[in-house]
Amino acid sequence: MASDRINDQTLQENQVAGNGLLDRRLFLMRGVQFGVISSVAASSSLAATTSENNPADPVWMHVPGKPFSTYGMPSSFEDNVVRFPTQNEAVPGNGVSWTPLHLMEGSITPNGLHYERHHNGVPQIDPKQHRLLIHGLVKEDLIFSIEDLLRYPMQSKICFIECGGNSNAGWNKQPSKSEAGYFNGMVSCSEWTGVPLSVLLDEVGLRKKAKWIIAEGADAFAMQMSIPIEKAMDDAFLALYQNGERIRPENGYPLRLIVPGWEGVLNVKWLRRLQVTNRPVMARNETSRYTELQPSGKSRMFTFPMEAKSLITSPSANMVLKTPGLYQITGLAWTGRGKISKVEISADDGKTWADAELQEPVLDRAFTRFRLPWNWNGKPTVIKSRAIDETGYVQPERNKLVKERGRHGFFHYNAIINWHIDSDGFVSHVYDKDEQQQKNSDISIDSGWD
Amino acid sequence: MNNNRKILISVLIAAGINSSSADEIKDAGPGLGHKASPEEIAAWNISVFPDGEGLPEGEGSVVQGEKIYQQKCLACHGENGLGATADQLAGAQMGLTSEYPEKTIGSYWPYATTLFDVVRRAMPMTAPGSLTDNETYALTAYLLHLNNIIGKDDVMNASTLPKVKMPNIDGFINIYDIEEKQK
User: Fold this and answer.
1) pTM of the predicted structure, to 2 decimals
2) Partner residue facing A297 (CB), from B87, B97, B110
3) Average per-residue pLDDT in chain B?
4) CATH topology of domain A116-300
């Protein structure tokens, strides 16, 4: 699929790693055409709807268009770009919906596609009847209305929120067969705007013994989590807006605690209470859940930051590369410990690696989009990406992570994800070769959301 | 220095206030909160801590708890807490180091007070917050007994519950503490 203007010699000269990975500067060359990567499910419907029209003189140029709308919606032709819900059969409000990362570009998640994790549904909160109480080891216990909080000095931060349980299918002995976003999309990235928590904590006046803050939501689970005071005073804030509009109900309307880079569950939605204490409350979700059982039988607890991770979103599972030729590999990287400093891509199953182009601006604790051109020779191979963050941490291979943590941690799975491309261009998820012996067993991990 | 502070300081400087007093104001908010009374806080605060802080008056027995469990919990958590559409709560056969570990209240949970806390705030999922404190104590007693942690005649209340020692109390490593000390 290389265009006429890019000849074999140019491709040869621009190799940066094995099996066809090409220099990032190729993006700047004129006349570069990338091959079409299609999702198996979507391609047929697209063909059916466009065949009726002559693009030179389409019917929509001969009839007046639709009038204005009060709130815009995506094109009806994009109705496959949706979240994928999986929930408890007996309690439909207990579950998750996954962001379709494999169908998206850029680094901001539209509000209607931000992932969801609810323990007992989405409360329908009247903001006039909602209050935030801050109490405990403070000089003055105070109650704030939403109207009050809207009058406070605000700040905006673009940051990701990732569920501690994201990608947990990776602990399974068999690789997931789902699309990339539907087993890694419990992570999304928004611009959140609100009041720095430190401003409110200064107003209530922390007492000397204050060490933790218990944050509680006004949902039917009254979800509560303990957060160290250092983080609360550092960069935590109370968000009222998400991507410029008031937070969606499923993301915490009217008030959400944002704890940048830390486990999603700490970013308490529908925030109604902050109790300042000298110790954690040892809530259900910081003891029996969101702790990681290790091979020793001991469990890791209070594992707050989400470690560096990357994911090639295209080409990815269940997509097809129609012909050999030039393709754009693209994906997302993020780290709860600051900025992504580098993303490396391999197109020869990890033998050689090349630096991907990072989309500017690279922001602290936000999605970083990466891309690299690749000339696929039509032969089966494995492509993968690995993220390196500013602390020097390198995203681990799966076998290293499993060796270190065992397979029953359930949370904090951040291993490198491999996409196998067969000779027909079909993409599927595979584990490393030395893990193939595990294929004898197909018994899944202790999965489930509650 | 964030933008709000910059704006605030420039306003203060423009008003003839020097920057050292502006620094004292820093990110000061407008002070719009109103004072919460002890009664308001008591009505609002439902958190229970491992040392028993937050536990209400009242009590419940294993026998009482078993009856409530049959009516309100069994449909999701199964016979004898063995699990169904919701968590397995008791009856772990496989240990935490086995190939298929079972994480139940008895095998995994570090604090008995957590059980009271989560049942009172969130259970049953179809009618959260509907159990009385006595019913919550009773269910807590039943589930602890089901896990062979307390006796059949034991009664749970604000004094007895925090004294219950859970088998897996030493099963957790505080990673945050370790990382903070390394800083």
Assistant:
1) 0.91
2) B97
3) 89
4) Sulfite Oxidase; Chain A, domain 2 (3.90.420)
